[in-house]
Structure formats: C-alpha cells, structure tokens
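Blinded run. Sample ID left blank on purpose so nobody reads anything into the name before looking at the predicted structure. Input follows.
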Amino acid sequence: MTEQSVAEIEVDGVAMVRLLGPQDRLLRTIERQVPNARVLVRGNLVRIEGAPDDVAAASTLVEELVRMVKGGFELGDAEIESSARIIRSGGGSPAEALGEPILTARGRAIRAKTIGQRRYVDAIDRNTIVFGIGPAGTGKTYLAMAKAVQALQRKEADRVILSRPAIEAGERLGFLPGTLTDKIDPYLRPLYDALNEMMDPELVPKLLASGTVEVAPLAYMRGRTLNNSFVILDEAQNTSPEQMKMFLTRLGFGSKMVITGDITQVDLPAGASGLKLVTTILEGIDDVAFSRLTSDDVVRHTLVGRIVDAYTAYDARRMASEHERDHRGAHAAGAAKKGKRGRR
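Blinded prediction complete.
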C-alpha cells in the first residue's frame, strides 16, 4: 500500500477568498497542477492528502500562492500555472521571481505573470533596445506599454511614442471615409486601449494634445531623431527590412526602444519580414536584447497556449514537408541532367 501523507495550512479569511477565487474556481486550478494530491478546504484550513512527494509539492504551491495574494497579487489561472512551473523547475519562490508591480493603474497592479515575462521586463530595464518576440497573448505590447508609462511617471523619459506599421496604407485605407488620421486610427486602436487602461482616461487626451504621448504609424517616423523618449514599435513582424532599419536609426540620446512582434504572424503581401531579419543582424550586439516568449508565457485563456502550440507544430510539419519536397525536386533535376549528359 502506498504511503499517504497529510498537510494542513492555515489561511486567514481574506487571503482564503482570494486564493480560492469565484466559486472556488482557482482551487480546481491548483488541484490540476498536482493531480495526485487531494486539496480540501475546511474553514480557514487547506488540507492536502496524497503521497508524500505530491503533498509536499502541493503544500509548497499553496504556501507560495498565499504569500502572493498577501503581497497584492491578483491570482488567476495563468499565475497559478506559472507558479507551479517555477516550483517544478527549481526556479525558487514565484512570489520573488515575479517581482514587484511595474505600476498600479486604476486600482490594480500591473506586473509580470510568468518567468518569461519577468525576464522581458528585466531586459527592458537593462538595455537600450529590446525585441519582445512571441505569440499572441504573451503580454509583449502590454508590458512594454506599462514600462513606458512607468518611465514617464518617473521622469525617466520626456515623452512616449507608440507606433505600428499600417501595412495596407497604400491600398484599402484609400477607400475608407475621413481624414488620414481617421483611416489610420483602426491600426493604432489597440495602443490607445492599453494606454487608457494604464492612465487616467481624462489625462490621456491632454498628453496626446501636448505631444507627451504620441501614437503614430511607422511611416511618420522617417526623418526624425527621437531623444529622451520611450519608443515602442508594435506588430513589427509587418515591417520590411528597410522600415526596420529606418525605425532603429531614429534612436536618439536618452531614449529607449522596445520592438514587439510575432514572427509566425507576418501579414506582409510579399517580401521578407524586417523582424525576422533583424534577429540575425543584431544578435549579440551589446545593449540590444532579444526576449523570446513562448506559449508558457500566454496569459490569456489557457486554451490560447494550446492553440499556439498546435499551430507551431503544424508549421514545423509543413516546413519539413516543403524541405523534403524541394530536396526530392532538386535530386530529380540532378538525375535528369546527368542522364541527358550520358545520352550525348
């Protein structure tokens, strides 16, 4: 008979409510991280039953989560799953690894929720140019925006400049009604939305009017030198190599740049992605960092991470199939050429 163990952890009422979540939803997430341990709640006690190793793992996770909620973390499925991964990998305390909030906006703290995100945020602190590369939902743009607002609040930057490429500007936008600003606005709307989440909505129009915060399409960057600014280029996978070079050479004194994108989601009609190319050109250059996020860093619905993994596997199979087909074609062409010479 397998040896069984029991552990009990006392949690005060407020922390218990935040630990369990609505309708005890987070309790089920905790149980999924250590499926061989049984987690029960009785009043202010969390009781864990199972094999000794499983009980120890579940106890460590619960204790860390209690520490996190007491420290102001807002727990969700992503935070629990990330904390479990940190513990399993021997990465130390999740509460310490995920660090302090970047900023508090409208009553809630914005902070890194995974180890990958923490490394990304740390890279922004340490480097002048940072590339945040990863799939949808990994917080690339959101965390960069939070760091930009933080820099503005701390007076580390005089202004924040947010940009995106409008890849259809030469075609479909011409058929839309309104001024050029009206036509470009849909491309920049995600940046406005994030800005309004992180700052007083009444303050945002004033900052935009004064130029302290600027939201502009990439084409507007040409010919400028951006000094004392925190500059973000979003959706950079849709830049051409020439556009990427143009953007990077806008860097002025006292400025910081963060470039974000997903190299698996290129919408360019033809040609190479500037983001893909720059990873080979600038890799290893001092004060330039590449932070690569993965499905483990997805902080949207947990299904998004599985969708990202499924598409990554599909792309790998497709590329392998194309490589094999090209190889067979080259082999057949070589054989035909050799046979033609033999007939002569």
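Unblinding after everyone has recorded impressions. The chain has a mean pLDDT of 85.
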